[in-house]
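Just wondering, does anyone understand what follows?

——
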Amino acid sequence: MMTLQGKDMYLRALEPSDLEVLYLLENDEAVWEVSNTAAPYSKYVLKQYLENALRDIYEVKQLRLVICASEEKQAIGFVDLFDFDPKHGRAGIGVVIFSEKHRQKGFATQAIHLLINYAFTHLGVHQLFANITEDNSASIDLFEKLGFKKQGIKIDWIRAAGDFKNELFYQYFHEQH
């Protein structure tokens, strides 16, 4: 099992026991706009996803790791690499912390930092990118604090609540690290 250790948290691979927390997150309409989800997921579908989660990132083009607080030893969020493209040396990165209780405590910062190191060291990635809606100031602050640079704006990119939102495109290059 893969584990990456932070100061007061760690990242680990998905386990079958993560089904309930995955079910709650994937069916939370509040996160659908950033995950491109349009309908609820069944536990059956998510169980199949968990069974395939250990497949190679080179095959499935994504990697989801569970963020765990060291003291609580429980899942408090996920951090993802997605759209992994080994030919061009890039991948998208995203993070979600489940509850307000665990937000603004540095867990997302540590998780992204660990995943940046992993992507550059083990996957040979040249750049990471993040897509953030322009009204998500917490994520904008987080990624800018970590050195991601805003490179562009996708106008009317995300449909949410019957309206359109702009999405900001951020990049982080290996040479920055």
About this structure: Residues 107-122 form the longest helix (16 residues). The chain has a mean pLDDT of 89. Helices lie at 19-26, 32-35, 43-52, 57-60, 107-122, 137-145.
